[in-house]
Amino acid sequence: MKMCFPPLALIFYTDALPEGVGGDARGPVIRIRSKYRKDQGIHQHELEHVRQWWRTLGLHSVLYFVSRRYRLWAEAQAYQMQRWYPRSDGLYLSLNDVAIRLSQPRYKLGITVVQAVEYITGRRRPN
């Protein structure tokens, strides 16, 4: 476990995450798969969700699950942040890499990779 601020967050390293998930933020608590301990990109992605949580005074937790539009905005912001920090191997994710991730069915957004690129770059706003 480590403490991080700003934003104030507790980070735990664990493999008790769903298959295919590298990290997860619930309020100010972040869980990251052990093999991604040195992946700055995932850390920054999850820290962005913690910032969203703090900025909304905790409403992020509800909005994320009930509003597709908010979830799309929140994930696009987090993936935009993740692109600017290296993975464990020192490489950076491309815009296409993060767009593919954002368009995955697990987010229940119903968007294409092309649309994901537009949301991440700010050329399109969630409607």
SSE layout:
Blueprint: E1 2-4, E2 9-13, E3 23-26, E4 29-32, H1 40-55, H2 60-66, H3 68-82, H4 95-102, H5 113-121
Parallel strand pairs: 2-4
Antiparallel strand pairs: 1-2, 3-4
Helix pairs in contact: 1-3, 2-3, 3-4, 3-5, 4-5
Tell me about this structure.
This protein has helices at 40-55, 60-66, 68-82, 95-102, 113-121, and strands at 2-4, 9-13, 23-26, 29-32. The protein is of the alpha+beta class. The protein has one domain (2-121). It has a four-stranded mixed β-sheet, with helices on one face. A hairpin with a 2-residue loop joins strand 3 and strand 4. Helix 1 (40-55) packs across helix 3 and helix 3 packs across helix 5 (113-121). It is globular, with a radius of gyration of 14 Å. The model has no long low-confidence stretch (mean pLDDT 94).
Features:
4 strands; four-stranded mixed β-sheet
Strand order of the largest sheet: 1-2-4-3
The secondary-structure element order is: EEEEHHHHH
Number of domains: 1
Structural class: alpha+beta
Number of strands: 4
Distance between the termini: 38 Å
Mean pLDDT value: 94
Rg is 14 Å
State the helical fraction.
40-55%
The largest sheet, given as strand count, sense and whether it forms a barrel, is: 4 strands, mixed
Stretches where pLDDT is under 50 for at least 5 consecutive residues are: none
User: How many helices does DSSP assign?
Assistant: 5
Measured by DSSP, the beta-strand proportion falls in 5-15%
Large-scale geometry: globular
